[in-house]
Amino acid sequence: MTAAAEPGGAGGSSGRAPESVIAFGGAPGDPPKTWLDLIAAADQVRASLVERGWQRPLVFCGDRFAFLACLLAAWESSGLPILPANGRPETLRALVDAGAADGLVHDGVVQGTPGLEVSPACVDAGAAGADALARAARLFARRDHDPLLALYSSGSTGAPSASIKTAAQLFGEADTLARTFDLGARTRLLATAPPHHIYGLLAGVLAPLYAGGAFLRQTPLHAPAIARLVAEHGVDVLCAVPPHLHGLQVLAPGSIAGVTRVFSSGARLPPETAEFMRQRFGLGVTELLGSSETGGIAWRLATDGADWTPLPGVEVSADLDGTLLLDSPFAARHEPRPRRCADRIEMTAGARFRHLGRADAIVKIAGERVSLPEVEQRLLALDGVRDAAVLALDDAGPRQHEICAAVVAPGLSVADLRQALAGWFDPVAIPRRFALVDRLPREETGKLPRSRLEALFASERQDREGGPR
Amino acid sequence: MSTSEAHDQVERVSQELEAEIKQLIVGVLRLKQVEAASIDADAPLFHDGLGLDSLDAIQLGVALQRTYGVVLGPDDAETQRQMESVRTIAELVRSRGRSGVGP
């Protein structure tokens, strides 16, 4: 790994050309967005932040160009942008109310929540100040250890937890991803993973930026939309999560011709999805292993077998009980070295390893971290809920886990519970199965053995009125 | 056949198709706690109504294409409208599918 470089500066010293394209897509007919467009847009958002005195803006955007402009705006005003776990109204409001953020900055995608709506995509590139290009180049060349960004995600103890990212971690990893996977000035990336999650942020926004390439502004979900956008915009890299790849099976061979690399992260890629991608499109899938606290850890080509290779600069070992010990420039620096992770591994030949799963109460569904204790605590906090327990059962389908909740709440319906949770969680995190019971099958000590909890969901006809309605 | 008989038959065929789609939804998404017949054909499937999520939407899209040959899209907003409820899916199947079920 060579010394730090500015975006697009692989080998160059002055950063990328002002007119180079950084983002494409958006509304039909929108012209591509250039590096200068981004800098001008960020400058305008920065002025709004400064006017409000917001040092810690909570950023949530549907348009990745707007998203990046908001981050850049915060950085340019020495602020610390905050990214929420999701865009649900209660989640956003709570972060502001608790003082974690000064206020919400969004591009119109959030409705009914107070905040500053910005339109970075409408800013004229000519508005960029003379020194703005040089300032942006200096910013992206940073590799220091000052806080640069706070990512909120579901913590394993139930309370939302923040991962603070520094320039060394965030920009260092984006640069490493770009170099390791040969992204370059021609890279045109489409991401289905949202940019407010660490994987979507790094692989979907910052890695193409550091490569000198460009990303699609919108975040499509369904295969027909993905295929249309790939063809329309000459996309060559996909950044997805396994269930989104699974959905591509409605496409005919050749419908995503032009794509040469596919990233997948957030959950294990099922072997049948890897095989389908190879057979239908002739594509090997590059899987990335990581989390918001650790940053990227390792990668593998899904068709090459089960072993993971640590990313350049990352050292992985296992302690006696198989816990992953991580020494990484992309993980928080103040942690003891090496850091003990919540993952269990087995070392194999050549510093590679097998991943045996997470050891804590977090499950990942479509790349979204779902903290079972957090869901449980949100249920317990509701008026009328006397007891609650949440567990994840294995699911044979692409979602891989099915979240189930057993709740003691006389007078409340499943619809009431679902509605209350919907203010806090994305739909994938809301239990798909509820059992409304008179009491939970706790032991005398109050302990609730998993087997007893599972038994509540064993019968398919269990609590029929308790369907997701 | 009188006009009202013809109307009744069209009505019956649509109800059969809707019942079939409800079965498909429950089966494909393995909604173990939902009776297909209890799904309201006009209720939103996502968010408020049946409470399905984005992963369900992808799986349902795959199943609709396989079963009825319907083509969704071309963009996500249109796909969301197409899969809004059992009724809108039935309309899509009737207008674009290769199924024999149709007026």
Produce the secondary structure layout.
The complex is a heterodimer of chains A (469) and B (103).
Chain A: E1 21-24, E2 33-34, H1 35-52, E3 57-60, H2 64-76, E4 82-83, H3 89-97, E5 103-106, E6 116-117, H4 132-140, E7 147-153, E8 161-166, H5 167-180, E9 188-191, H6 198-211, E10 214-216, H7 223-233, E11 237-240, H8 242-246, E12 261-264, H9 271-281, E13 285-291, E14 295-301, E15 309-310, E16 315-318, E17 323-327, E18 339-347, E19 353-358, E20 362-365, E21 368-371, H10 372-380, E22 387-394, E23 401-408, H11 414-422, E24 433-436, H12 450-456
Parallel strand pairs in A: 1-10, 3-5, 4-7, 5-6, 9-10, 9-11, 11-12, 12-13, 23-24
Antiparallel strand pairs in A: 1-2, 7-8, 13-14, 14-15, 16-17, 17-18, 18-19, 20-21, 22-23
Chain B: H1 3-28, H2 54-68, H3 76-82, H4 86-96
Helix pairs in contact in B: 1-4
Q: Strand-residue fraction of chain B? A: under 5%
The H-level CATH homologous superfamily of chain B, spelled out, is ACP-like
Mean pLDDT value of chain A: 88
How many separate helices of chain A?
Answer: 12
Please report the distance between the alpha carbons of the first and last residues of chain A: 53 Å
Sheet of most strands of chain A: 9 strands, mixed
What's the number of structural domains of chain A? 3
The CATH architecture of the largest domain in chain A can be named as: 3-Layer(aba) Sandwich
Largest interface in this structure: A-B, 37 and 31 residues
Question: According to CATH, what is the class of the largest domain in chain A?
Answer: Alpha Beta
* Quaternary form: heterodimer
Mind telling me the CATH class of chain B? Mainly Alpha
Strand count of chain A: 24
CATH architecture of chain B: Orthogonal Bundle
Please report the total strand number of chain B as a whole number. 0
Descriptive keywords:
heterodimer, A: 469 residues, alpha/beta, Rossmann fold, GMP Synthetase, Chain A, domain 3, 3 domains, 9-stranded mixed beta sheet, 4-stranded antiparallel beta sheet, 12 helices, globular, disordered C terminus, B: 103 residues, Non-ribosomal Peptide Synthetase Peptidyl Carrier Protein, Chain A, 4 helices
